[in-house]
Amino acid sequence: MLRMTMAALIALPVLGTAPSHAADNCYAVGQRVAAEKGAELASAEVAPGGKCKIVLVIPGANGQRPKRQEIIVDG
Questions:
Q1: Which whole-number Å values give the CA distances from 29 to 8, 20, 39, in the listed order?
Q2: Residue-wise pLDDT tens digits, 15-70
């Protein structure tokens, strides 16, 4: 019983950092996609299946309102 408890306590910090790392990766992917499209990154979050859900704000042309674009990309 003590071994299982120790293993759980050792694994806890590792499991706790995984979502943060994935979110950081999605943010970096979102920044790259935004730069490629000439857009502003509004948000980036982890989506199911190891993908990233990215929301971009694309500037409008000739005084038009900006457009919001939501895309799913590989993370």
A1: 32, 14, 13
A2: 444 567 778 899 999 999 999 999 999 999 999 998 999 999 999 999 899 999 99
CB 50 within 8 A of CB 75: yes
AA letter at 36: E
Strand positions, DSSP E, the chain: 40-47, 51-58, 67-74
The pTM of the full predicted model, rounded to 2 decimals, is 0.69
Residue 38 phi/psi, 5-degree rounding, is: 65, 35
Nearest to 69 by CA among 36, 28, 41, 29: 41
